[in-house]
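Researcher: I'm preparing a figure for a lab meeting and need a structural model of a single chain. I don't have an experimental structure, so a prediction will have to do for now. The sequence is pasted below. Please return the structure as tokens so I can convert it later.
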Amino acid sequence: KWLKPDKIDNLELVKEYFGFGNEKAKEALEVLTSENIEVIKSKLAEGGMEKSNERTHRRDG
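Model: Understood. Here is the structure written out token by token.
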């Protein structure tokens, strides 16, 4: 299944932000909202990926 150009851009953002491969990133795009994508874009533009990822993925039991 082919992705539209804007979806390809979003796929690359998700791959970079979360460290996902193609298939995992495609699955993530199915549940992420456009607002989520905008946050990811701004975080990557700030260079704040590592700190953001640590906060996002930390689960305090």
